[in-house]
Design a protein that fits this description.
Jelly Rolls; Immunoglobulin-like; 6 domains; six-stranded antiparallel beta sheet; six-stranded mixed beta sheet
Length: 755
């Protein structure tokens, strides 16, 4: 009896120390469970001394107490006991704490420490677990009416200060209770003393085989498979029997952002069942189409995954593309421009959805912007400018993700608009330059592009376009060839167009009067020219009352003359004005035109004080000569023609002037005149017989004009004299008239002639 009392007294003195030791061991013990499990830590196993995971019950005369903080008055821990008072409590009276496993989970282990105290042996102090089928697993059981002290007034005590692990093998409930079991002789228990069971540390390990459920909530553009950029969010809903500890987002198979919940592992269901948003920074992701799914982790570490959704990410602004103006950038008279461009293929990138343009006046500060939407937009049709003039436009694009960067604007193109025609009018004629016609033109917007001047003989209704030039973009200028047009009254008409195609036409001068001219505009001139030819004429003269016929040499100016090759010829002429007066100091150009050749200038002459001029040459080919006075700004041009016809010829020599019959001589010569036929010039060798020339041998000269003929004398008798000459006949490719050459004599002596 004394030993039992000593044990009880010692236990009471050691109880506070045992409580502190239990708390220390609980704090030092690991709190993290393996995957699929978690631990409910209560009382002194919880840093905050929480015990809310346990439900409580008590009948009349019984009580429970939550006092897990070891520092404080009275009994500490989770206490189930009777109410200490006089009298008794009936059998079946009880108080307790119950820890229920969450749905679809079981308890695997319990790590526990505590203390039991009993004054009445009829109380049962119990800690046990209940399996789903109703079987119990005893953890600590101080049975009623067992191990009772012989002295009924002596108390019993049991202490378990060190937390001990107990296997629960799939229980779903843990119960701590004190119950009045009574005795065969007594259907009650005493209430005079304290009968209680204390829990200091309780760590129940829960096995959870069920993964959580999680789904993507398509409440934003990212989850709705729209093209997105920058910071986005994905909605989720998650649920689990033990709550959700964390929801993680995976993009392209790689974990990205997550949303964590605050879990309290002192509660039987530690974590909430959340719904919310996970912020995702797409700039950290690769671009293009990829898969996103969510993974939820429950309180026990189980992972559940959502179905994947397709997300489309593009954080790159569309690059600059060249733009063009339909019809080109030239000036136009209609205000309406179509801008076009090509969107290059960009697989798996956000399509183009809008185009923004900025329109600015060239050289000014006036600007405006506009935007045209539409998927794949590749044109801005009928863009108008605010006012006539020259404008520049740039364009940049926006994609479906909202990426846009004005710095990626295209190079500018020009929009040029001019609705007004040029201003136009004939200017007064300049007396010092009467053939020059000038039309003043101006266009302040697009500028003058060109124009033309036309001429019509008065009353004819037929207009002739004149060669017109644009000078300094301010004058249309032409010259009237009054030397080639019939004299009379003429009307003029001018037109001018600007760079936009606007056309203006007028027949009036700048003073409003009609433009009319009388041709010719310049003074007339006359040119006479020909060849000097001397010949004798018979002339009758009277002397002393008598008539005599005499010969007189005269020199005449003839339009054409035939001469032998190499003959010197002289041309003379004179230039006079319309009144017949001489025109001195004028330039006369001489042009030669041999047959079948191009005309070439051969001389430049100047008229003398009397208006005369002279030109001499050696006649080496037939040619027509044209004497041209080109006129001046105030005098008309004129010209005259003359022709010289030249006989061809050849030199001739013989190597022997005296020969015997039976010997031969060599005739040779060189053709005079050029150009010679490519096949060589034909030459005939003639002999004078009976006062007639007879051809007896022909040959062709070489390219240098040289030729030769060897002739043998075979039929001569006695002494004979022969006279020879070359004859140069005409040919199609020979620019000279037929001609002959010098004569040579050959003396031949043979046998005496018979009979």
């Amino acid at each position: 009896m004394t030993a039992r009392r000593t044990d009880i007294a010692l236990a009471r003195r050691l109880a506070p120390c045992l409580v502190l030791a239990s708390l220390l061991l609980a704090l030092l013990s690991p709190a993290r469970a393996a995957a699929g499990e978690y631990t409910i830590s209560t009382c002194q196993a919880s840093g905050a001394f929480e015990s809310g995971a346990f439900e409580v019950f008590a009948t009349r005369g019984m009580k429970w107490r939550r006092a897990c903080n070891p520092l404080g008055p009275g009994l500490r821990g989770l206490v189930t006991a009777n109410v200490a008072k006089g009298g008794h409590v009936p059998v079946g009276s009880e108080s307790g704490f119950v820890l229920e496993a969450p749905p679809e989970t079981t308890f695997q282990r319990l790590r526990w420490s505590g203390y039991a105290h009993r004054r009445d042996c009829r109380y049962a102090l119990q800690l046990y677990a209940v399996k789903p089928e109703g079987a119990t697993v005893a953890i600590r059981d101080v049975r009623a009416d067992h191990g009772c002290p012989s002295n009924a007034k002596e108390a019993q005590a049991s202490s378990w200060p060190r937390p001990t692990s107990y296997e629960l093998s799939g229980a779903t409930r843990i119960v701590q209770r004190v119950i009045c079991a009574g005795a065969p002789q007594a259907e009650f228990c005493s209430a005079k003393g304290q009968n209680y069971l204390q829990t200091f540390v309780a760590e129940a390990t829960v096995s959870d085989p069920t993964p959580p459920l999680v789904s993507v909530v398509a409440n934003g553009p990212l989850a709705q498979s729209e093209w997105v950029r920058g910071s986005q969010s994905v909605g989720y809903e998650a649920s689990d029997n033990t709550g959700i500890k964390e929801v993680r987002a995976y993009v392209g198979g790689t974990q990205r952002e997550s949303a964590s919940q605050i879990c309290d592992y002192s509660q039987r269901v530690p974590c909430p069942d959340p719904s919310g948003q996970i912020a995702i920074e797409t700039t950290k992701l690769s671009e293009g189409t990829q898969q996103l799914h969510l993974a939820a982790e429950d309180a026990s570490g189980n992972i559940g995954e959502s179905a994947s959704v397709t997300v489309k990410i593009d954080n790159t602004a569309p690059a600059a593309v060249p733009i063009a103006v339909e019809g080109g950038e030239a000036w136009r008279s209609r205000d309406g421009f179509n801008l076009v461009w090509a969107n290059p293929p960009e697989p798996d990138r956000a399509p183009i959805t809008a185009a923004t343009y900025r329109l600015c006046r060239v050289g000014g500060t006036e600007c405006g912007t506009g935007t045209l939407g539409g998927e794949g937009v590749s044109a801005i049709p009928d863009l108008t400018v605010p006012a006539p003039g020259e404008w520049e436009v740039r364009m940049w694009r926006t994609d479906a993700a909202g990426n846009v960067q004005p710095e990626n604007a295209s190079l500018p193109v020009r929009l040029r608009y001019d609705p007004e025609p040029p201003k136009i009018g004939f200017e007064e004629q300049n007396p010092a330059d009467p053939t020059r016609v000038s039309v003043a033109v101006s266009d302040p917007i697009s500028g003058v592009a060109g124009g033309g001047i036309e001429l019509s003989r008065a009353g004819s209704g037929i207009w002739q376009a004149l060669p017109t030039t644009l000078e300094s973009e301010s004058h249309l200028v032409t010259r009237i060839e009054d030397a080639t047009l019939p004299a009379g009254q003429y009307e003029l008409r001018a037109n001018a167009s600007d760079r936009a195609g606007n056309l203006a036409t007028t027949t009036e001068r700048t003073d409003g009067q009609p433009e009319r001219l009388t041709l010719p505009l310049r003074a007339t001139t006359s040119l006479a020219a020909g060849l000097l030819e001397r010949h004798k004429i018979h002339k009758t003269v009277r002397r002393h009352g008598k008539s005599y016929k005499v010969k007189e040499t005269v020199t005449e100016l003839v339009p054409a003359r035939t001469v032998d090759f190499g003959t010197g010829v002289r041309f003379q002429g004179s230039l006079t004005d319309g009144a017949g007066g001489p025109v001195a100091g004028a330039t006369v150009l001489v042009f030669s035109h041999p047959p079948e050749e191009e005309e070439v200038q051969v001389a430049t002459l100047t008229t003398g004080a009397e208006g005369g001029f002279e030109y001499a040459e050696k006649a080496e080919r037939s040619s027509g000569l044209r004497f041209v006075y080109q006129g001046t700004a105030t005098s008309l041009p004129t010209e005259a023609h003359a022709e010289v016809l030249v006989h061809g010829g050849s030199t001739l020599k013989v190597d022997k002037a005296h020969v015997l019959n039976g010997q031969s001589v060599l005739f040779s010569g060189k053709v005079e005149g050029s150009p010679r036929p490519a096949a060589g010039k034909l030459v005939e060798l003639q002999v004078l017989l009976a006062e007639e020339w007879s051809t007896f041998e022909t040959t062709r000269a070489n390219p240098d004009g040289e030729w030769s003929i060897r002739y043998p004398f075979k039929r001569s008798c006695g002494k004979e004299l022969f006279i020879f000459r070359p004859d140069v006949p005409g040919e199609a490719s020979w620019p000279l008239l037929p001609g002959t050459g010098p004569r040579v004599k050959v003396h031949v002596r043979g046998r005496p002639c018979s009979g």
